[in-house]
Amino acid sequence: MFNCLVKNMLERAVKLYPNVEITDRKPSGERFSYTYKDMHKRICRLANVLGDLGIKSGDGNMGDRIGVVAWNNHRHLELFLGVPMFGAVFHSLNVRLSLDHLSYIINHAEDEVIFCDPDFLPLFEAMEDRIANVQHFIIMTDEDKLPETKLSPVSSYEDLLSQASPEYTFPDFDENTPMAMCYTTATTGRPKGCVYTHRMQYIHALTAVAIGGANDKSIQMSMVPMFHMLGWGAPYFCTWFGMKQALTGRHPDVATFAKLIEEEKATDVMGVPVLARALLEELRTGKYDYSSLQRFVAGGSAPDLALIKGYEDLGIDFRQGYGMTETAPLITLSLIKGPLEGLPTEKKQELKRKGGLIPPCLEWKVLNEKGGEVKWDGKEIGQLAVRGPWVIEEYYKEPEKTAECFKDGWLYTRDMVTVDEEAYISVVDRAGDLIKSGGEWISTLDLDDYIMRHPAVLEAATIGVPNPRWDERPVSFVVLRPESKGKVTGDEIKRFLLDEVKVAKWWIPDEFIFVDEIPKTAAAKFDKKTLREKYAGEG
Amino acid sequence: MFNCLVKNMLERAVKLYPNVEITDRKPSGERFSYTYKDMHKRICRLANVLGDLGIKSGDGNMGDRIGVVAWNNHRHLELFLGVPMFGAVFHSLNVRLSLDHLSYIINHAEDEVIFCDPDFLPLFEAMEDRIANVQHFIIMTDEDKLPETKLSPVSSYEDLLSQASPEYTFPDFDENTPMAMCYTTATTGRPKGCVYTHRMQYIHALTAVAIGGANDKSIQMSMVPMFHMLGWGAPYFCTWFGMKQALTGRHPDVATFAKLIEEEKATDVMGVPVLARALLEELRTGKYDYSSLQRFVAGGSAPDLALIKGYEDLGIDFRQGYGMTETAPLITLSLIKGPLEGLPTEKKQELKRKGGLIPPCLEWKVLNEKGGEVKWDGKEIGQLAVRGPWVIEEYYKEPEKTAECFKDGWLYTRDMVTVDEEAYISVVDRAGDLIKSGGEWISTLDLDDYIMRHPAVLEAATIGVPNPRWDERPVSFVVLRPESKGKVTGDEIKRFLLDEVKVAKWWIPDEFIFVDEIPKTAAAKFDKKTLREKYAGEG
What we know:
- Chain A is of the alpha/beta class.
- Among the domains of chain A are: 7-197, 3-Layer(aba) Sandwich (Rossmann fold), CATH 3.40.50.12780; 361-430, Luciferase, domain 3, CATH 2.30.38; 435-538, GMP Synthetase, Chain A, domain 3 (2-Layer Sandwich), CATH 3.30.300.30.
- Chain A starts with 6 loop residues before the first helix and ends with a helix.
């Protein structure tokens, strides 16, 4: 039977779009560009390098794991495609993990080789004695000379490529061969490994384009680090559909993103809400021509209404995506359904804020505490369970954690959601974060959103704390904007929530704790576990 | 592992688009409409009916075959979805086949049950004694009383459904379970069976939408009979993506199509060039509001430039699709690539006339007589070979024919094509129709197109005839428009080809034979085999 393999993506790009560009920012800041044709030759060289290093490919079973940590650059993209096409497993390392977790996952995945940008060498030097399984470090730099390092053995990516043949015939193999893996950014316990097969990413990429509406006229510039959930799949679907890819290079800041949109005429941008907000403010300065920009997809956490409205006021279609490492990553996208197209703009923006729709291919159910399906009223809360062609069915080498989260092929997401009459799914909270106060649910995510609508508030994170009368009550940590520090009180925020946002009285947090910063997880989300520990320690 | 099954399509439509309409024209001409929610209930009833009839479902292997022949109507759509979801095989019968071929395929497929519209009963009555394998005939009619027939046993679709329970849980099974089959409309020898699995149609539908750009705002009205290559896949992808479907009912004529576009606000229409041409003339009368119409996809044979320009002058994006029964059916679609978007309109229309691009998923090569790949110059001719997730890998129970056309998983299409510098594939001719004159190729399809550009010509079909000096020479059969009959000579057409179309002198047919009609195959293509026999018999 025909096998659905990642190689079809690059091979199609080379045949149909040989001269379409991939651009990058060199560490020097200069623009770099080459074409799919150029990239294909280098990926052939890369495959020969992997063979020379003794890397073993898989066929139904798992090939050797290749750890990779890099900025969003063209060499990173080469590894995204080349490692799977060779038959090995691209292990994307999230540099925002703690050293403990990073060394743990490198060991747990048994990475044979690490490819890394020079900026990340200190990370590996700091845990050198803890990752003895790594046989080889390959440094990706523009410089002729490699940086000084105590790691060994070390080679230069460019040297190895230049010595390798540009001819390589990528083999066929079983489509269920693993092509990549990511670990979850666990807030409790160890990160868990999610292994993706060729078939999974193949069907995921087709679906992402089928619902997203991008095509070979699109120009993608992602603010999402490629080490976050495979860059949300963009390296695959952009290549397959012949899109121009504008990569953002080393240490990009918001001005870099805005400038790239102008210079590369980006049509599609993806990013987390925090960066989306910063980019919006940058675009509003009027310093950039962003007329090419058609769509913004935000994911990672929920966007607020002001953000959605802000983009759409500039004529940019704003969409909220929701996903997980376990689903590589797509679960919902906040498209406006055909039958709702006639709604007023504000209603549509409210829908986009609330959540999104399940795409074709995924099966889903939302189960309440009794194990029954919730009512589709936008109110009853239940846990979302999904299964489908790109949803993993186990954690890598973790039978116990697998048994906790998977049952009969279904992934129990631990995300608590509501479903409205039109099947829009809204994430209310993580299972552990939701507050039960006097027998009723309070969503900390909603409260965070409401508090952040106050003009003086930069960030807000709410947790539940034990309460003798109500079982649990909300307490919010608040970061004020620099100019408002010391000038806004908890009472003022309480008044704002009651009078302006019209929050129910019993939802109002018992306490507002002003802090300089909210701790974040490696996925850039508020780290509520640390906040709870902090509160318990001080309380 | 998760199985990719047709049931996801309907289940998604019911959950996300319960109230989106499917409309139909009753035999009385009245409008009929119901929703995905209504249809789902009836399909549950249908599954119970199939179970009661003793139909066996498959799981990896082949379930029982259900023969179906009907107009494009809602019951037909129910069978498209319900039979595969039950686990049986939807055998789509092309009523344009000869009785010999029709009875042959019903026997060869071993159809257990036949579902048919009353209009097609005489077909089955005429071959009753030749299809003894059929256990049951189920007639789909709006009338309370079944029409008189000598077929037996006979039941009413509506009666059976009304007696069945509306509750049914569609099972999971192996995605490689056959879900449908079609036979080729062979011009030589017996029709050959092509069996499609759930997985094949699933990936085909995703890809069709990913490249085609339709979405849940689209309203599909197809002029393609649903018994032609599964209606080009529309029943599946339209349902999956929640599109409104406007079905055309019994004996639709061109005025019906034009009226439906206006009444149902169709955005997408599909059809063969002959009907496309008729519809264009109808729309041009100014009697209809066709402002909703965005896209026209033509397939089955090559559209001419005037047709493409005609639609695009009305603001409708015209696309040429090319496919085969063996590929269920998509092989190419004439999209304008991103990098060519800036070409002048005439150049883009010329590209659309020439051919199309291979979509994601398919692998392809074009081999010349020496077995090497042709040069991508738009000139060198070779045979197209394809493989991919929706390409069959054998003919049903035909090991010899399978060995002729398939090798190492590749389908050798017998279509002779060129590839231009931009990878646009143009079908020059069927392997047997291409003319080799004095060592050089002449495309009869191109000649047909050139001759049909003459304003007095309605149809033209060219064949190669033996010639002692040049091996082969072209001879053209020509049908003139009624008002031009007897007024246009072969010399006039010859002059037109030389002076207006600028056809090379050695391509000019040796003879123009004026006829009242060109014989057609069951796929509505010019039947060149019959023309060759006719010429040989008369020559």
